[in-house]
Design goal:
single chain; about 180 residues; alpha/beta; CBS-domain; three-stranded mixed β-sheet; flat; CBS_dom; CBS domain
């Protein structure tokens, strides 16, 4: 740990403090956030600049108040469809689904499945966002080890046939009545 850069070391120490089978143990501490007064255009620029964050964690922008508590979330789709100068506050869901850091893996998976979530913010007792759990994190933790070691299924290949001239094709046979 001493050889790691400061910010990275802090992230690892934070994660080590949680049970690996809890929301806190599964979460990624890298996520995008902004204040409610941020404009849609600025929020999109923040998302575009978040090149090291897993894509599933970028589906929602987390809106934090001045005490870093979760004030809401806004989807990237809503940001894209908004006027660039519109505030995030006008677009956000003010009561987003969230989960406590101590919640177990089953609770995380069920909550995400029930609400069809790609990601869910993990909060502490004061509603401060500690990190985000993504659907990929949950799948990786719940899929049995022997399934993960298997060879991935080949991608289906769609055979592409060249266009043909219908004038050269035989007339379709009609069925007798």
């Amino acid at each position: 740990l001493e050889l790691m850069p400061g910010p990275q070391r802090t992230k690892v120490i934070t994660l080590m403090g949680f049970n690996p089978d809890s929301a806190g143990g599964l979460m990624n501490v890298d996520f995008v956030s902004c204040a409610a007064s941020t404009t849609a255009g600025t929020a999109l620029a923040l998302i575009a600049g978040a090149t090291t964050i897993q894509p599933e964690a970028l589906v929602k922008m987390h809106v934090l108040d001045e005490d870093n508590r979760l004030a809401g979330v806004v989807s990237v789709i809503d940001l894209l469809q908004a006027e660039p100068g519109q505030t995030v506050e006008a677009l956000m869901d003010c009561d987003p689904i969230r989960i406590g850091a101590e919640a177990d893996l089953t609770d995380v998976a069920l909550l995400m499945a029930d609400f069809n979530l790609y990601s869910i913010p993990v909060v502490d007792g004061q509603d401060r966002v500690l990190g985000v759990v993504t659907v990929d994190d949950v799948l990786e933790a719940t899929i049995p080890e022997d399934w993960r070691r298997r060879e991935p299924a080949p991608r289906p290949v769609r055979e592409i046939t060249p266009p043909h001239d219908d004038r050269d094709a035989p007339a379709p046979e009609s069925e007798a009545p």
